[in-house]
Each structure stands twice: as structure tokens, then as C-alpha cells.
Amino acid sequence: MSERHSQLFGVMGEFSTPEDLLAATKKAREVGYKHVEAYTPFPVEGLSEAVGFKWTAVPLLTLMGGVGGGLTGFGLQYWVAAITYPINIGGRPLNSWPAFIPVTFELTVLGASIFAVFGMLALNKLPQPYHPVFNVERFAQASTDKFFLCIEARDPKFDLVETSKFLQSLDAQHVNEVKDEE
User: Fold this and answer.
1) Which residues partner with 176 through β-bridges?
2) Do the beta carbons of residue 7 and residue 166 sit within 8 Å?
3) SS in 3 state form for 26-73?
């Protein structure tokens, strides 16, 4: 364990191919780094597993939104048709649930999609106009042709010198300190 750097977000290594980044990420997790983040210009197969993403609450939020939307749609129609404004037309029952299915379905889809979008945004802490990695000049290439691996300073195993040497040992083209200067 090492000292904490108050103005240091982490150390970032730059790689030229997705295969190099994937191998470096796997090696970083193998040696015990837990707070690592990878940045790529396009999705890389297997990278999310290598970084350590396992579970997300978005499917649960989507289910809750869908169930809530469906119950709201059905409940509102039942309340209007059977309780507040009951009209007996042709002897049909007041709770004519087959007629309620289209609106219930639509509100289920609407509730699920709203919860999914806003849940994903909230869990990803978006919008996030500032992130410390933007302080690294070479990071501008992360959206075109370079691949980056950042080991964060909050990691229990983080040591500035040792982590920098570790990234260099993985054949990173450039290793930069990521300052947290807001």
C-alpha cells in the first residue's frame, strides 16, 4: 500500500491495438488492481469482462418501470371504467380487461424505456462534462485510433512509481499521470 495523492486521479497507459489493451487489462487484474478503466474508440470484445464489469442495475430498473407502467395503465382504466364512471353497455362487465390490454401494453413499454434510459444515465453519472482523463493531452486520440488503460489512485494497490513501471512493462507506448485539476 502506498501514500494517497490528493491531486492525482491515476496513471494512464496508451496502447496502439485493442489486443494489447485487452492483454494489459487482463494482466492488471491478475496482479491485483481493482480500479481500472479502459477507453477505446470502438467496442472491444471481452474488454468489459477483463475490466471487471459484472452486474448492473439497469435490467432491474427496466423491470420495475415496466411493471409500474403496466399496473398504472391497467389500474387507471379499471378505476375509470368500474369505479368512477361505470357505464353498462350491452351487458358487458365493468372490468372488461381484454379492452384494457393495448393501453396496458403501451404503458408497460413506455415505463420500461423511461426507467432504462434515465437509470442508465444516473448509474453512469451522466452527463459528466468533466473527467480527469481529459487533462491528458494524448487522450484526444481515444476517440480515433488509440487505446488507453487507466489505473486509478484510489486502488488499494496503487503506488505512483510501481504502477507506472507496471504499465511500462506491459509495452505501453506512453505512460502519463492523470491529474485531477478541476
Assistant:
1) 12
2) no
3) HHHHHCCCCCEEEECCCCCCCHHHHHCCCCCCHHHHHHHHHHHHHHHH
